[in-house]
């Protein structure tokens, strides 16, 4: 499998639940390394830009409101097949449909407050990583 990087966000609901460490532990146990990280409060502009592909969707405003409702923890994960591996750890978008033992099954409350974001493809991962991190703040090791 190819060495990949993916953009992960621990969303405001999971930060509020104080489970950053538990989620990081799942990344590490799955062989994913945190190679960049930053806690921030997203501005409306940043959240709208990040989710611009969803701009026309009915849930867009609710999604943006939720993403700016509190601080988020943003990280770049690196590892073999990191994009799919992270999506597997996350579970389905709707926590009611997420497989047992996934992050969303264990920590998410609803399709809106669903604990984590993960890039869905190599192209989006590259764009999303560059959206939040300068290359000098990403530390391959
Ligand atoms: P994410 O981008 O946050 O990692 O989530 P995802 O790929 O699993 O889901 P995506 O389709 O990209 O949707 C982005 C976020 O929008 C919210 N959503 N709400 N009410 C709805 O039908 C609906 N569909 C999506 C979710 O919070 C999802 O994480
Ligand atoms: Mg998505």
Structure, briefly:
The chain has 141 residues and is an alpha+beta fold. The protein has 7 helices and 4 strands.
Fold and architecture overview:
The structure is a single chain. The chain is of the alpha+beta class and 141 residues long. The protein has one domain (3-42, 72-137): Nucleoside diphosphate kinase-like domain (Alpha-Beta Plaits, 2-Layer Sandwich). The chain is 39% helix and 20% strand. It has seven helices and four strands, in the order βααβααβααβα. The chain has helices at residues 12-16, 20-29, 44-50, 60-67, 82-90, 103-107, 122-132, and strands spanning 3-10, 33-40, 72-80, 116-118. A four-stranded antiparallel β-sheet has the order 2-3-1-4. The structure holds ribavirin triphosphate (RTP) and magnesium ion.
